[in-house]
Amino acid sequence: MYKKILVATDGSPFASKAIDVGADIAKRFKSELTLIAVIQHPMNAFGLFGIEELGPEAYTILKRKGDEIIREGKEQLRLHDLTIRSVLEYGNPGDTITHYAKKNDIDLIIVGSHGYGEVMSHMLGSVSDRVNHHAHCSVLIVR
Ligand SMILES: Nc1ncnc2c1ncn2[C@@H]1O[C@H](COP(=O)(O)OP(=O)(O)OP(=O)(O)O)[C@@H](O)[C@H]1O
Ligand SMILES: [Mg+2]
């Protein structure tokens, strides 16, 4: 059923849970699993300027953080017998995740219900909410 699964991670415990669920589903369906982390400058929440305009220092710091998030996600998946792809993108996380999914024929996107934001238990985080509303494919929100 799910041939291509995309798991989005911001490195939070919620995303870590989403990664575990992704691994389990990928094993059952023999799916290809891709981890995606999106880096975004905190001053650029609306995506008004490109990464090249941030200057090399900001870029280096953000890239290092993104690489670390991906490394941790892969480490978590190491014991599972799965083929993993990973991608680090720059931009608005919700939009970037849904664009990547469409462009790459993903069948299922998995996100945590929350991330590093202040948790309001009854509400979804803004990234999971945006992915849920805009994705072309099924979305699994892990709680
Ligand atoms: N930058 C990101 N890159 C990849 N995935 C992300 C990113 N940010 C969030 N996610 C995914 O979305 C899930 C929900 O995170 P979200 O950011 O929506 O919640 P939050 O941080 O609690 O709220 P908010 O960011 O709105 O304050 C995470 O568990 C993760 O799966
Ligand atoms: Mg967040």
Topology:
Layout: E1 4-8, H1 13-29, E2 32-39, H2 56-77, E3 84-90, H3 93-103, E4 108-112, H4 126-134, E5 138-142
Parallel strand pairs: 1-2, 1-4, 2-3, 4-5
Helix pairs in contact: 3-4
The structure holds adenosine-5'-triphosphate and magnesium ion.
What structural keywords apply?
alpha/beta, Rossmann fold, binds adenosine-5'-triphosphate, binds magnesium ion, 5 strands, 5-stranded parallel sheet, globular, single chain, 143 residues, 21% strand
Describe this protein's structure.
With about 140 residues, the chain is an alpha/beta fold. α3 (about 95-105) packs parallel to α4. The protein has a 5-stranded parallel beta sheet with strand order 3-2-1-4-5, sandwiched between helices. The chain has a single domain (about 5-140), classed as 3-Layer(aba) Sandwich (Rossmann fold), CATH 3.40.50. The chain has helices at about 15-30, 55-75, 95-105, 125-135, and strands at about 5-10, 30-40, 85-90, 110, 140. Bound molecules: adenosine-5'-triphosphate and magnesium ion. Adenosine-5'-triphosphate binds near residues 8, 10, 18 and 93.
Q: What is the averaged pLDDT score? A: 92
Beta-strand proportion: 15-25%
* CATH level 4 superfamily: HUPs
Q: Please give the domain count.
A: 1
* Strand/helix succession: EHEHEHEHE
Form type: globular
- If strands are numbered along the chain, what order do they take across the biggest sheet? 3-2-1-4-5
Helix proportion range: 40-55%
First-to-last CA distance: 22 Å
Radius of gyration: 15 Å
Q: Which structural class fits the helix and strand makeup? A: alpha/beta
